[in-house]
Design goal:
The protein is 54% helix and 19% strand. The protein has an eight-stranded mixed beta barrel, surrounded by five helices. By secondary structure, the protein is α/β, with parallel strands linked by helices. Bound molecules: ligand C2E and magnesium ion (MG) (3 copies). One magnesium ion binds next to β6.
Length: 275
């Protein structure tokens, strides 16, 4: 009987691998069409200044509405797009769309806030990233001060020399940078001190269990670290009043999360925050 079970287990295992593989292949093919057929949309999530309660900036988050399937999570398709190289054209689409949105809101006379774009580490590490990014911002005819870039801690630590130079170039250009998902990578603190970033975004996982003493200690320490390095600090994934109160008492600069707003469409942002 044990042997039988073992066999079944093996069967289930290969079946799972197979399913995962065909799902990936399917997504890869569908993504090819998605880029061409405008199946993407950008949602925006406000980032709130804890002291004033005002919207300080917006994070641009891609949404893929796949015909006949509905929304596919970026946590599923972004890693696939990174492996296939499709992330380059997706990243270009996102940056162009954000530039267009900034220009549009400006022309409508809304008082703008900066918009942050998530840049894949795979894209960021390419030698021509800066050149391509500059070109998009130039063509978008917007002041780069309205754009911020979010790049994960691990992507920055991957190639420190390149990251250092690219961050310098971005700063020179007037684009602010935030280190995303902070606390989940393996930052060398000595490099962190030298990186010309403006913000740390504390990963959602540390905010989630705020009653947990260890998470409280981690949050406190990251906020302190940011303060000592003269960086601004954002807490992601704030869902409850209790979480907000704790972050407030620890003097976290900004919060972002469902408590205030989910990511919503550009029209939603206009209605709720810009009008
Ligand atoms: P991220 O950059 O860390 O974005 C934060 C994620 O947390 C978003 O998920 C957001 O919807 C979610 N979130 C915000 N507040 C809350 C909350 O209170 N509770 C919970 N449970 N979640 C919250 P989303 O939009 O699914 O994106 C997931 C990840 O996919 C992003 O993580 C980012 O790494 C990547 N991503 C999204 N859009 C883009 C894009 O345009 N380009 C690239 N390269 N990556 C993107
Ligand atoms: Mg982000
Ligand atoms: Mg994040
Ligand atoms: Mg994340």
């Amino acid at each position: 009987a044990a042997k039988e079970r073992g066999k079944n287990k093996f069967y289930v295992y290969t079946q799972e691998l197979h399913n995962e593989y065909s799902r990936r292949l399917e997504i890869e093919n569908a993504l090819r069409e998605a880029v061409e057929n405008e199946q993407f949309e950008i949602f925006y999530q406000p980032i709130i200044d804890v002291k004033t309660g005002h919207v300080a900036s917006l994070e641009a988050l891609i949404r893929w509405n796949r015909p006949e399937y509905g929304f596919v999570s970026p946590t599923e398709f972004i890693p696939i797009a990174e492996e296939t190289g499709q992330i380059i054209s997706i990243g270009r689409w996102v940056a162009r769309s954000v530039c267009r949105q900034i220009k549009n809101w400006q022309q409508l006379g809304y008082s703008l806030v900066p918009i942050s774009i998530n840049v894949s580490g795979m894209d960021f590490q390419l030698p021509d990233f800066m050149e391509r990014f500059k070109e998009i911002v130039n063509e978008g005819e917007i002041d780069p001060k309205w754009i911020e870039i979010e790049i994960t801690e691990s992507a920055l630590m991957n190639d420190i020399q390149h990251a250092m130079q690219t961050l310098k170039d971005l700063k020179e250009m007037g684009v602010r940078c935030a280190m995303d998902d902070f606390g989940t990578g393996y930052s060398s603190l000595s490099y962190l001190r030298k990186f010309p970033v403006d913000k740390l975004k504390i990963d959602r996982s540390f905010v989630k269990d705020i009653s947990n003493q260890e998470n409280q200690a981690i949050l406190r320490n990251i906020i302190q670290l940011a303060r000592n390095l003269r960086l601004l600090v954002v807490a992601e994934g704030v869902e409850t009043q209790e979480e907000l109160r704790f972050l407030q008492s620890e003097m976290c600069d900004y919060v972002q999360g469902y408590l205030y707003s989910q990511p919503i469409s550009a029209a939603g942002i206009e209605d709720r925050f810009l009008k």
